[in-house]
Amino acid sequence: MPVITFIEHNGTEHRVEAPVGSTAMQAAVNNGVPGVLADCGGSCSCATCHGYVDEMWTGSLSSAKADELDMLGGALDMKHNSRLTCQILLTAAMDGLIIRLPESQI
Amino acid sequence: MSNNPLIIVGAGHAGVEVSVAAREAGWNGEIVLISEEKHLPYHRPPLSKSYLAGETAVDTVVLKPASIYERAGIRLLLGNRVESIDRAARNVALSGGSELRYERLVLATGGRPRTLPISVLGAGQVRNLHYLRTLDDANRIKSQLIPGRRMVVVGGGYVGLELAALAVKAGLMVTVLEAAERVLARVTAQVVGDFYAKVHRAAGVTIETSQQVEGFELDSSGANIVAVRCSSGDLFPADLVVAGIGLVPNTELASAAGLTVADGVLVDEFARTSDPAIYATGDCTRYFSQLYQRSIRLESVPNALEQARTVAASLCGKQRRYDSVPWFWSDQYDLKLKMVGLSSGYDQVILRGDLSERSFSAFYLRGRRVLAADTVNRAPDFLVAKQLVGAAAEVDPSDLANPAISLRDLLPSPGRPPVQQPSVAR
């Protein structure tokens, strides 16, 4: 199972294991990572699971679809490497993925 | 951790969020989360969407895995019903006969489906009439979603239409019976309701409006509905009937305990009930909205979660006033509908975008004030509309309709004080 590291805005690291085929959002929620609210449960409706994909990894993930980009457009503190973690489907190749969390999770 | 027990009644979105958020906010006593249901608490929205359509497995609808509750020291009491509250002794009585003492009590009892009047039901219990609220309800319906069967949906609201969308996709012959003159009559403008009716009809759903259900024709065993009879005299053959005709808040426990209740447990902006030791959150509550200057009860996941976070903060002595902008969503076919605000009292509807391209927004205005908006496949509009509604912004209606003007430019500028919230009639 891939291991993902979530880094809170205050620097606290959370290394979590998650099954292939689940989403990065589920990995965070299932392990109680603070700062990933995921209010809509992963239906790309709320933008409360926003995270920044580490620069090392941005190239290896499939790019965001239109509805994800639309939601990100309204997230606070959006950056070029912003993603909704509910739209990141985990593969075996994502072992070691690093996601940083924004200061404000609306 | 045997002191300071926090007891939460109901484990929907609201109850679960209170339990976890209270621990995070520093509640150091025992936390007990009580649910009538035997399942690990789960997400409800997918029940009328991806879960019922078979696209989402049961383990992905759970709100949190069991390990989260264990780690946070939250005792989950599943399959237990709270029968009564003794406010003087600060006890709750459980269905099994035991009693639990609380320091603070949270009511997150949600609601139950409104049922058809007894007169409609005829004799005895039928096997193929369903309501949808719980996972068990969804599983029962799922087992009867067989291609080629005829399904009659009573009620053309969001739940009814979501059911119709997934059933027709699953290969059933679907008829929606709506008592009003059009679908979504209570919640959206005519233009949006008509758009949805058209999409459903194009997908093969039969929509019958102004049809009041009067009774059922049963088979010879009396255990199954074979047709739905309307007061018009029309008869609609059915292998399966699902009624989605609204929600009744579960307030009986609160009423019996003498708390103030009026179609919802009354709470203040800190989610406190009329008893300082008891809080309430979610679909079962009613509160005064500063934004709309009237008391409202919302049936919405974002409301349940946000209000729950207010409860958690209040419990831990932190100030977190709750008066969020209401919002809702509904997924049908390829249409992502996001709604913000409450539209009642509007005097005009302004459209932005193109209905034929299945991408548009409807803004509800009273004078120049934006009361609410429905956005279809236009998330960026939704996000700006949320701010417009929250700020009680006043806009020029022609600017709203003009695609050449960015919605963001209509937001009150930071330098300018926001428009004072004018009171809305009623």
TrEMBL record, chain A:
Coiled coil: none
GO BP annotations listed: P450-containing electron transport chain
Cellular component GO terms, alphabetical: cytosol
MF terms in GO: 2 iron, 2 sulfur cluster binding; electron transfer activity; metal ion binding
Cofactor(s) demanded: [2Fe-2S] cluster
Domain (2Fe-2S ferredoxin-type) ranges: 2-105
Pfam families: Fer2
Keywords attached to this entry: 2Fe-2S, Iron, Iron-sulfur, Metal-binding
Family: Belongs to the adrenodoxin/putidaredoxin family.
Protein name: (2Fe-2S)-binding protein
From TrEMBL, chain B:
Domain FAD/NAD(P)-binding, chain residue ranges per copy: 6-308
CC terms in the record's Gene Ontology section: cytoplasm
One of the Pfam families matching this protein, by short name: Pyr_redox_2
Cofactor: FAD
TM stretches of this protein: none
Superkingdom, taxonomy of origin: Bacteria
Record organism: Noviherbaspirillum sedimenti
Domain Reductase C-terminal residues, every copy: 327-411
Keywords recorded for this protein, A-Z: FAD, Flavoprotein, Oxidoreductase
InterPro entries: FAD-oxidoreductase/Apoptosis, FAD/NAD-bd_sf, FAD/NAD-binding_dom, FAD/NAD-linked_Rdtase_dimer_sf, Reductase_C
An example Gene Ontology molecular-function term: oxidoreductase activity, acting on NAD(P)H
Record-given protein name: Pyridine nucleotide-disulfide oxidoreductase
